[in-house]
Amino acid sequence: MKTFSIAIHGGAGTLLKGQMTTQKEAAYRSALQGALDVGYSILANQGNSIDAVEAAVKVLEDSPLFNAGKGSVFTAEGTHEMDAAIMEGKDLKAGAVSLITGIKNPVSLARDVLEKSEHVFLAGDGAMRFARDNNYEVVPKAYFYDALRHQQWQDLKGSNAFQLDHSVKKDSKFGTVGAVACDAFGNIAAATSTGGMTNKKWGRVGDSPMIGAGNYANNNTCAVSCTGSGEFFIRGVVAYDVSCLMEYKGLPLAEAASEVIQHRVLKLGGDGGLIAVDAKGNVTMPFNTEGMYRGFKKSNGEDQVLIYKE
């Protein structure tokens, strides 16, 4: 049987040892481990990679600790606009949603776009109509209320400023969530979900739901989920760039991912990180910020949850 593995992230940014309480750090580690374990159990039971990444991301979406699903940040209008994408590497099928509101698990809606529509990317009112047509519950705004998120918004409200949630100083480092997996059959998949930027305006969309920018999977190369300054990741077509370096330059997974994160994104002026797997079960998790919530679990027994630079 082939090696199978899963990796997850909960955002990259200003994560410095000693700036977080012991209790808060323990909560993050527990949430990350819980997501890893859920996804890994699917792989260990001969499940497929797309089921594993969806399940892992749903765990992170259900936690208020991360900027996705329940923990999504506030827009300039005081609402929550969420984005998500999912892709499988065998047939290059993908689904994505953007600017949706009131949906507990955007990643599942993205998967339904993949499986139940003839499209790849649905946004706004149309995506919401698709959700209702597929019997999704639209939950009250109160479900997404979090006191810390609300305070982050209040600090920016009425200004033209907006910010990546994971780059906020003090004890406010959260971000996009994602998962990548390789199953026992050598098929890989990636999923990414986010609440975007605090105080964002005009229907701003980042890289997370964009296939090739923040999320990508191809059995011949890799599966990638990104987190960071979305505008730069879009301009750098980051997720696909990793795949391209593997396909056309023959670089191994870790080298290709490092080249993109440590050189190409920085050259554009962006920061962040990514997680990636290949069809052999190899995992890499590079980032160019102070830290990144991340973890991986492999069938060879390796199991790690990390936050800071090691």
What would your notes on this structure say?
It is a single chain. With 310 residues, the chain is α+β, with helices and mostly antiparallel strands. The protein has eight helices and 14 strands. An eight-stranded mixed beta sheet has the order 4-3-2-7-6-1-13-14. The chain has a four-stranded antiparallel beta sheet with strand order 9-10-11-12. Strands 5-8 form a two-stranded antiparallel ribbon. α2 runs antiparallel to α3. 57% of the residues are buried.
Gist?
This protein is an alpha+beta fold and 310 residues long. The chain is 33% helix and 24% strand.
Shape: globular
Major β-sheet profile: 8 strands, mixed
Q: Give me the secondary-structure category.
A: alpha+beta
Residue-averaged pLDDT, rounded? Answer: 91
Counted by DSSP, the helix tally is 8
Q: Total number of β-strand segments?
A: 14
Estimate the strand proportion: 15-25%
**How many separate domains?**
1
Q: Helix fraction?
A: 25-40%
**Strand neighbour order, sheet with most strands:** 4-3-2-7-6-1-13-14
Report the CATH C-level class: Alpha Beta
**Helix/strand order, N-terminal first:** EHHEEHEHHEEEEEEHHHEEEE
What is the terminal separation in angstroms? 31 Å
Low-confidence stretches: 165-174
Rg calc: 17 Å
The CATH architecture term is: 4-Layer Sandwich
Notable traits:
single chain; 310 residues; alpha+beta; Glutamine Phosphoribosylpyrophosphate, subunit 1, domain 1; eight-stranded mixed sheet; four-stranded antiparallel sheet; 8 helices; 33% helix; globular
Per-chain topology:
Layout lengths: L4 E9 L8 H23 L4 H13 L20 E7 L4 E8 L5 H11 L4 E3 H10 L13 H10 L6 E2 L12 E6 L5 E7 L2 E2 L16 E3 L5 E6 L1 H6 L2 H12 L3 H16 L3 E6 L5 E2 L6 E8 L4 E6 L2
Parallel strand pairs: 3-4
Antiparallel strand pairs: 1-6, 1-13, 2-3, 2-7, 5-8, 6-7, 9-10, 10-11, 11-12, 13-14
Helix pairs in contact: 1-2, 2-3, 7-8
